[in-house]
Amino acid sequence: MPRHRLLLDSRSPSIIVPLTGRDLPELESQTDALLTADAEYRCTPEVGAPLNGASPDAGSSAGRSTDRLVDVVEWRVDLFEPFTAGAGGDPARAVKALERLSTLLPEVPILATFRTRSEGGGAEISPASYLAVVEALSATGAAAAVDVEHLHPLAAQAIAAAHRHRVPVVASTHDFAATPPAEEIVARLAAMEDAGADVAKIAVTPRSAADVVALLSATEERHRVARIPLITMSMGALGAVTRLGGGPFGSSATFATVGAASAPGQLPADGVRRALDLLSSGSAPGGEPVYS
């Protein structure tokens, strides 16, 4: 059972920030930078609760759509040195690193993601090793959710492994070459839900403004009937608008940076938070747990 629940709601999209460190010291440094950025955010006129669990300053107010700069941290396990070095990686070291991150970020949900090279990731491991990593990370209770690649040959087994530990699954698919037709995007999102995912995520690459419109149109169409949250985006500079304005179309989260980016077009978290605050018009944060 995860220690944190992942709450997603397109009316108040969550900001997900990647951690991309190659080893534990680098991950700790990135976490420290994230906590510093959060503290600086709280020092502006309306402040909220820090990610490390400390009490906010006296006189703080709650006028924002959320009191945090970052809602979720995504740990990119595939960029961790035990896996980039080859030989199948070391799930035990990944478990220890995840436990450490959970200690450093006691108030923030962690999405654990192993992105294979075929989906734009930093390492390649055998299907059996991929399944073992998902199982090991799910068993810790330190991950609020795990990513499972929708097209992975053992996706069904990975989803089942996570669910055995009552850990929600973010099913994902990426297209770094183009944007599929809107009807295909809708079909992929539906297929992820049908496969048992608790969140369906798709990222595509636009070649024109029409591609961006196709992604947003498909998101809105699927959102009308979906029973799970959606996370959708167009990557790169052309698609940046979808990272800021996806909420009204049904996207429940956006990826932003405090330091290193993990995909093309990710914007700085502080700017994204300001934009989301303006677009939300002060609507209350919240959402339903994606798995309970």
From TrEMBL:
Reactions performed catalytically: 3-dehydroquinate = 3-dehydroshikimate + H2O
Catalytic residues of the enzyme: 174, 201
Domain of life of the native organism: Bacteria
Region of interest called Disordered, as start-end residue ranges on this chain: 46-65
GO molecular function: 3-dehydroquinate dehydratase activity
Subunit: Homodimer.
Name by which UniProt lists this protein: 3-dehydroquinate dehydratase
